[in-house]
Design a protein that fits this description.
Largest sheet: 5 strands, mixed
Strand content: 15-25%
Number of helices: 9
Order of helices and strands: HHEEEHEHEEEEEHEHEHEEEHH
Strand order of the largest sheet: 10-9-11-8-12
Helix content: 25-40%
Distance between the termini: 47 Å
Oligomer: single chain
Shape: globular
Structural class: alpha/beta
């Protein structure tokens, strides 16, 4: 018995030295005194800059609430397309709240929270372009975000469409449409629905081509951090903040997509 106890004590000692306690992301953020959050400022009302050049929009409000719950100031970085993933993986950002669709492919590289928003791919066209269907985009100039789900979808669905790439839908993609240098665009419905209400020369085609969960993204390696963010999103939904924030940016008559909290 004495030998067994001695062996167990030795194993416990080895385990303690081989597997030391490590600080998680929340501790790292608090020690640093700031949380680095990537937001996409490429289109109203999700994220853009106001007249004073300050980041504003639906995602910016969510990110600000998240930083308040962490108890530290927020440092914003404008990200879009593939940069949303690569900067997380490289450790340049702590969190991404940038209208990022939670896809199986992206989940190989980063982790996602439960959805804090939902959107689908929609098409917007010049009202006088004569485009009434998805197939009508063949041979047309279509604005698409580089590295987005819209790009992947369009390459497969309408391979003859002439893709006009942009890293920021607003102002770059919007300007291309306003100047009629493009016939159409494919983007999240959350951006295009808003654009169609503010520009009389543009109209959205009926129907969505996906139903994408939009998640908060973080790097892999800290499942407890993901769980905390899931709890943050659950509270965001159940507290009524989601409903208020959505209607703030899409209007009081808007119908926020149904979201399911975990708690």
């Amino acid at each position: 018995m004495k030998r067994i106890l001695t062996t167990l004590a030795a194993l416990a000692l080895v385990a303690g030295t081989v597997l030391p306690a490590t600080a998680g992301m929340i501790d790292d953020i608090k020690s640093r005194g700031v949380v680095r959050i990537g937001v996409s400022l490429g289109g109203e009302p999700i994220g853009f800059r106001d007249a004073q050049n300050n980041p504003v929009g639906y995602d910016v409000d969510v990110a600000t609430m998240l930083a308040e719950k962490l108890g530290v100031p927020v440092e914003f970085t404008d990200v879009s397309g593939d940069a949303r993933v690569s900067m997380l993986v490289a450790g340049q950002l702590d969190i991404v709240v940038a209208n990022t669709s939670a896809t199986l492919e992206r989940a190989k590289s980063i982790n996602f929270s439960i959805p804090y928003n939902r959107a689908g791919l929609r098409i917007i066209v010049q009202k006088d372009a004569g485009i009434t269907t998805l197939e009508g985009l063949a041979g047309k100039k279509v604005v698409v975000g580089r590295g987005t789900t819209g790009e992947a979808f369009l390459k497969k669905a309408v391979p003859d469409a002439e893709l006009v790439y942009t890293d920021n839908f607003s102002p770059d993609g919007v300007l291309l449409l306003q100047q009629k240098r493009a016939d159409a665009a494919i983007e999240d419905s959350s951006l295009l629905d808003y654009l169609a209400t503010t520009n009389e020369n543009l109209v959205t085609l009926p129907g969505l081509y996906s139903n994408d969960p939009i998640g908060i993204a973080v790097a892999k390696g800290d499942p407890e951090f993901v769980r905390w963010i899931d709890m943050f999103v659950s509270d965001y939904i159940q507290s009524g903040a989601y409903d208020v924030n959505y209607k703030k940016w899409w209007g009081e008559k808007a119908n926020p997509p149904a979201l399911t909290p975990l708690w």
